[in-house]
Queue: 3 jobs
Job 1
Amino acid sequence: MTGPRKAVLTALHSTEAHLTAEQVFDQARLTLPDISKATVYNTLTELVQMGELDELVVSRGPRLF
């Protein structure tokens, strides 16, 4: 597992609430300060495609993970 993927997973497990990609990015930066938004978005997309993460689409709101 790569450092960025671990940082994203740590961010996702940091709370019981659903997070936006921006919130995941903010949390991941606490673990890996040099992580980019593109890496977070790409990692979230990969995790959804692999079936490891669910993506919630709420009308008129940001997607939640």
Job 2
Amino acid sequence: MIPVKAASPYPELKVEGRNIHYAAILTGDLASATGEMTAIYQYLYQHWTLQEQFEEIAQTIVRISEVEMHHLNMLGSLIDMLGGNPKCEAIHGYKRFFWQGSMVNYSRELPVLLKSNIYLEQSAVREYLEQADYIEDPYVSAVLARMAEDEEIHYAAYQDFLAEYIKSTQ
């Protein structure tokens, strides 16, 4: 069975103190077009639509969605602990964007959807590591760095599936 999360445990969810700025940063991870809400729904959709033709891929994708749900839960808890409001809304500067289903890639073509997933995972790794470096709360930074480890595993799984698909069609 393909691993879908890193072996190391998640750090304890806690914060040094309230910080609305840090909470606002994390809202993008929660509810933006490249955030966990998008990944979860996109992966569930893919699981539903790929089950018959690509069972192994569909099963791996649904397991990845479960890890993303755990990330969503941790992010919501951290946002709340930091004094923010963990609703499905991303805050960028003075603008607020609510999560919506149009953020999901609904492609049913395997190479297209795998490339979309690869992009989501690359974005997550980059964002989590950048945020872990920027945020000076060591507890929040540790959670973000640990979540990035999972996203790297997801990225590699999708890369492998795409490579296998390309090889099988040549």
Job 3
Amino acid sequence: MFGVFKRNSELPWITEAKSVFGLHETRDNAKLKQWLRSDGKTLGDPNALPWCGDFCESAIKNALPDEPFLGPLGKNPYWARNWLHFGETTQPVYGCVLVFSRGSGGHVGFAVGEDSDEYYVLGGNQSNSVNISRISKSRLLGARWPKTYKNPMRELPQMSANNIPKSTNEF
């Protein structure tokens, strides 16, 4: 599964996100809470709260400490749809932040691949863990790139579902 990550120079927030790949909010609660606090703040217990935004915030802030979080995102980085205010607009490219609809709420994670119908998203709170899940392209609200890191415009690798779960309602 990590073949998608084999690159000459990995994006720093993807490296940070990969460092907790596989952690589960119940089984690995203490370790996950410690990592989510590592950027200086956290939403709280991932076993009790939706933590996809906290996951993205920790990965970005640990990797790019000078990245500004302005407006609604600065006030509440834990609300997934606030990530539509992150950085700059981009087309979906490797490593960008993808924001998805989910009822009146949303979901946020990092793009690591795609197929014709779905994005492959490295994220937290996907089946209660840090993993790669497939999310329908029709749910995409926006793609964002950090202001403090030059966008190399890496195309998303074409992937095949194999054993990667499809997510329709992140929890």
